[in-house]
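Researcher: We're teaching a course module on how sequence relates to structure. For the next exercise, students receive a sequence and then see the predicted structure as tokens, so they can try to spot secondary structure elements on their own. Here is the exercise chain.
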Amino acid sequence: MQILCTNDDGILAHGLECLIRAAEQIGDVTVVAPDREQSATSHSLTLHHPLRPVRRGERRFQVDGTPTDCVMLAVEALMSERPDFVVSGINHGPNMGEDVLYSGTVAAAMEGLALGIPSIAISFAGGDLRADIAKLNEQIDVLAPLLRHLTSLDRFPRETLLNVNLPPRRREEIKGVKLTRLGRRVYSNSIQPMRDPWGRHIYWIGGGAISWHGSTDSDFQAIQDGFISVTPLHLDLTHRDVLDTAETWWRTP
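Model: And here is the predicted structure for the students to work with:
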């Protein structure tokens, strides 16, 4: 099995190294990842300058671009054969609810899906990586059998990626795996007003408080309860329920 590993935290990220160690237990791994932090780049492509892949070892490349760039470049230029799976992660932080709209981790898997390749995005739902690094290391032994299971499904869902979130718990404290739907999250006070050295107003997006809500089968609830969350996502953003009930709200102009 040929597996393409990538991420949005950069080629040197500890989460990527953990993913590689898990993926190598089930297949041949090629790594194509950004040369620096690319969190929250979503599905952006680099169009205004050429990309320069740098070889860092056997089947290891760093790219001066986004996670989406990395997957496209890997599949169409760098790999000698098409991968059987694209696996993105392990992200340093959760990707649940609306996070999937911004996440470079999820976007890399989305690009694999757009190219017709079964894809999986994986995130570690902890906060401070330094405090949780021992837990992340232990996730290798949890993730390897999970990847083996997901990649061996008789019918991996078509036109779908699987968004996996790992709970920030010790290995023996993880209760199992749940199939979930996206929850909802709200950021409060996430824009920080500041002044630059010349006294001009600037604003920094980030930080603030996060609140979660959703049904009992949502991703954040599974993580809170100590389960691994697996959420199927697809590219079609059509709101089918609204489309099917158009007679209740739509009037032809």
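Model: If you want an answer key for the exercise: The chain has a mean pLDDT of 92. The chain is about 30% helix and 30% strand.
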